Amino acid sequence: MTKTAEFELVAPEELLLSELVELVVVPGAEGDFGVLPGHSPLISTLRTGVITVYEKNEVKKRLFVSGGFVEVTPERCTVLADEAVSIETADRRDVENRVRASQEVFDAAREDEKDDAAEALRISKALLAVLDTAGQA
């Protein structure tokens, strides 16, 4: 069995990441799951959370995703994310501004717009919480 699998992270506008990985942990709809080379085939929806990429038993990258889908084969893990943000390069002020703007949109939203505005606010707050727990405060 090979020691690496191909990992691709695709957002609506671009391919964000394509590399060989030893392990990737994905926030699946039913809970986090790890993907190693040789993993059984699987398709799952993603929940808002963090994808963690490991190399030599250490975290190499952490990426926030707001949702999407993941397809796993024995050779590859492909994530089709609604949105993805690198935790290491995220700008906290930009995220705080995003939370404020999302709150303003929610507060001003008509009743028929509340669900979408609430979801945008929830995702913004989740990203800020991830940055807080990552020590970027």
Top keywords for this entry?
27% helix; 137 residues; ATP Synthase, domain 1; elongated; single chain; 2 helices; 5-stranded antiparallel β-sheet; 5-stranded mixed β-sheet; alpha+beta
Account of the 3D structure:
This protein is an alpha+beta fold. It has two domains: 5-86, ATP Synthase, domain 1; 92-133. Helices cover 27% and strands 44% of the residues. The protein contains two helices and ten strands. It has helices spanning 92-108, 114-133; strands at residues 5-11, 14-21, 23-28, 31-35, 42-46, 49-55, 58-65, 68-72, 76-81, 84-86. Strands 2-1-9-8-5 form a five-stranded mixed beta sheet, with no helix packed on it. It has a five-stranded antiparallel beta sheet with strand order 4-3-6-7-10, with helices on one face. α1 packs antiparallel against α2. The relative contact order is 0.16. The model has no long low-confidence stretch (mean pLDDT 93).
Question: Topology of this structure?
Answer:
Layout: E1 5-11, E2 14-21, E3 23-28, E4 31-35, E5 42-46, E6 49-55, E7 58-65, E8 68-72, E9 76-81, E10 84-86, H1 92-108, H2 114-133
The tally of domains stands at: 2
CATH homologous superfamily (4th level) name of the largest domain: F0F1 ATP synthase delta/epsilon subunit, N-terminal
In helices, the fraction of residues equals: 25-40%
CATH fold call of the largest domain: ATP Synthase, domain 1
Backbone structural class: alpha+beta
